[in-house]
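Worked example

This section walks through a single chain of length 403. The input is the sequence exactly as stored; nothing has been trimmed or padded.
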Amino acid sequence: MTRISTFSFYQNSQSMMMDRQSALLATQTQISSGKRINSPSDDPVGAAVSNSTRAALAQFDQIKSNQDRATYLLNLGESTLGQMVNVTQQVKQQLIAAGNGTYSNADRASLATSLQGMLSQLVGLANSSDGSGGYLFAGSSETTPPFSQSGNTVTYNGDDTAQQLEVSSNHLQQVKQPGDDLFLKVRPGNGTFTTSGAAGNTGSATIDPGTVSDPTLVTGSAYTISFSVSGGATTYQVVRASDNSVVSSGNYAAPTSITFDGEKVNISGTPANGDSFQVAPAAYQSIFDTVNSAIQLLQKPVVTPADQAQLQTALSGVNASADQMLNHLTLKQAQYGSALNELDGYQSINDDRTLQYQSRLSSVEDLDVAQAASQLSQNQTTYQAAIQSYALISKLSLFNYLG
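Given that input, the structure is written out below as tokens.
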């Protein structure tokens, strides 16, 4: 028995039927997944665009995660510094109260005890956790609290590393500030120089923290203001330490303002012969040392008028240093707020880009359901026709014509 159709005809029919089946399955897969591209062969160019778009979206997702972490850390840092500002304001209140002339040694000692509690609060806040097993203000150190306290002495154990996170393409946001920059680098006094009385002063003269009258004339040198009393007249002279030269001199009558090399101080009270005051450049001082110096000052008994004068001079100086401490912490807190505002902008940009790339991915991958449904119906029809045609052709032989 010989078949009418040739082997080639059978092959072509089978191939056509399998093509129709593949087209039907592909359309069914598209409808099931909701995607136009389910394998690279569906659309090689579209698949390449899809892969690059997904890679970009993965990067945006990582940046979003970094932004969320940065927001958390910056908010935590700003809040912690806000609490430290509140404690510093309480320190200021205690120092103002200590200037009350009616306070006894016991009253000042009580204020010193309160300041010790505030010092411990400041150390505790400076050792705040970052919520992930590390510390907010330790630099790169994650296992050891950045500050340790022994009595009223506080030591920094961290480093100066500023931790950063990538919050936008090619932009790193500082999310952790090291404790040395935040709490150790404060200029005491008026921020430019400090004033103090010599330990051996026996008169009742006092000096204020001073001001800068002309920044362009400030030399950065230390100075000594000394007094001489002779025949009922009091004179002073100001000697610059860097070259041992007299930069100002004159008769003293309380109160007196003395200006030299762009610096101005006010002196009141009655100095004794040989009394002196020191004016020195304001070197860095930690906020903890500022509070510690206030504690030591208030613990020291006042017995003589000279002691009282020393107390008033030292109190005015430590008050000025506390102002610098407060201004410094407030500035650092504001920097956290500024960083959060900047981060908001990067978050908006990242959200916009994510939406754009999601739209691009959707336009490349997503299926037109109505069109796919029409295509499915067409593919089903052609597939059924191919099956029926092949079935009829496969039965053809000479026996169909004999009978």
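What to look for: The longest helix spans residues 305-365.
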